[in-house]
Amino acid sequence: EREERRRKLKRDQPDDGPRPRPQQVRNDHATQNKIGGYKRVKETPQGWMDCPASGQPIDKIIPSKVPLDETFNESVPPGKRYSSKQVVNKQRKAGRDIGLVIDLTNTSRYYSPAEWTKQGTKHVKIACRGRDAVPENEAVNTFVYEVLAFHERQKPSRNPKYVLVHCTHGHNRTGFMIVHYLMRTQLSSVTEALNIFAQRRPPGIYKTDYIQALYTFYHEIPESITCPPTPEWKRPSDLDLNGEAKQDDDDDNGESAPSPDPVDDKAITNDDVLGDAVPFDQQDILRGICFKLLDFVPNGRANAQFPGSHPVSLNSENLQLLRQRYYYATWKADGTRYMMLIMRDGCFLIDRNFCFRRVQMRFPIRNVNDGFHNFTLIDGEMVVDAIPGGGLKRRYLAYDLMAINFSSKVKVEAT
Q: For residue 234, which phi and psi values (nearest 5 degrees)?
């Protein structure tokens, strides 16, 4: 009976020679899915494979390349993988616990933030373009605030945790942010800050436009700008694993930033919005600083009220005030009212809505070796002056000093 079934099977499927074996699909191009089609291999960023994983800490900030989740495993050999779990294990072996991760990439395809939050690590996304543009000023403000706030929360701890910062490769955008942080908290020289980052994360920032932007932002004119060459691991190759032309992945989404419109000096007005926005949490902190410098205890709705002096209409009811109190007569500027809070990490304009915007200005103390003003509050007006010979220039006219270097002057009588 068994032999009969074998002969019947042979008649139904005649042996015409060796059957062709199905062609094996290489894993480095595509993998076959359940319905017989193909899916694309999730490609790693250009140069990521050979890029060093991380650098040495800078004020408890660890520069790193982006970790990739397990969906990239088909294109990354086991010895080259760098996931969030591997980041945590590597840093713990070095005696560092990560408490905050700041992601500067301009995409969400590399990993899910839940990989960090589910283990109790805070994750902050600050999306920054990487190609044809440096990070925007508001992104820098957010970065510096998040790091400072985290460090402040860690002060009571005997073993403060670290901040992991990454873009795609952990050099240009990451270095740009860390240099800004150093300039606003510790250093007064862009060159020194660049050198520190290059030592801790070789070769440092290797994009010339990033380095030039840092010098320009902090009003420094270097004798010369030395930019490290592009690392070997970042040199472009011809094709990716899917057989397509590979592009520079620094921008992550491949979108070019629009060229900024040239600023026309003749177009400036008193109604222009000045400075860069700050995080809402930071604005609340800055409001509290102003109240403290003014010896003012807010309550309820007063938290959002402009704390500066207000004009008093000169009518018959208020005319008696001129007899009761000393007063000064002064020229009335035709501008926009702003208070100015001068801090070590920035200068903040405060409008009549009690909103803060950061402008890049630093005020050195008379003895330059003593550093810069910190917790100084002044009142004044922003005006637009006509320049002899043509053109317009913005000026801030300061006419009242409320506090200087954390010393309140609101109760000091004028002499």
A: -100, -5
* Cα–Cα separations (whole angstroms), residue 378 to 208, 277, 398: 37, 20, 7
At 162, the pLDDT band (50, 70, 90 cuts) reads very high
Burial of 404 per CB tally in 10 Å (0-12, 13-18, 19+) = middle
Instruction: Give 58's DSSP letter.
Output: B
Cα–Cα distance list, 17 to 2, 14, 24, 246 (Å):
24, 9, 21, 44
Report the sign of the C-alpha dihedral through residues 104, 108, 111, 115, in that order.
positive
CA gap 149, 155 in Å, rounded: 10
Please tell me which residue, 26 or 59, carries the higher pLDDT value.
59
Say whether 337 counts as a known binding-site residue.
Answer: yes
| pTM (2 d.p.) | 0.80
Residue 389 is assigned to a ligand binding site = no
> Is residue 203 classed as helix, strand or coil in its secondary structure?
coil
Contact 151, 160 (CB under 8 A): yes
Alpha carbon distances (Å) from 219 to 184, 189, 212, 216, 361? 13, 10, 11, 5, 9
Confirm if 396 and 380 have CB atoms less than 8 A apart: yes
Q: Which of 128, 167, 290, 347 is catalytic?
A: 167
> 63-113: per-residue pLDDT in tens?
999 999 999 999 999 999 999 999 999 999 999 999 999 999 999 999 999
Contact 58, 183 (CB under 8 A): no
Query: How many Å apart are CA 313 and CA 372, to the nearest integer?
Result: 38
Task: Report the b/e string of 206-242 with b at 16+ CB within 10 A.
Answer: bbeebbeebeebbeeeeeeeebbeebeebeeeeebbe
CA distance 219 to 101: 30
Marked catalytic residue, from 93, 266, 332, 411: 332
> 167 an active-site residue?
yes
Task: Specify the length of the chain in residues.
Answer: 415
Distance CA 398, CA 378 (A): 7
Main-chain dihedrals φ then ψ at residue 364, nearest 5 degrees: -70, 145
Please indicate whether residue 227 is annotated as part of the active site.
Answer: no
Do β-strands 356-359 and 346-350 pair in parallel, antiparallel, or remain unpaired? antiparallel
Query: Can you tell me which residue has the tokens 């980052």?
Result: 197
Q: 172 φ, ψ to 5°? A: -80, -65
Show Cβ contacts of residue 35 under 8 Å, excluding neighbours closer than 6 positions: none
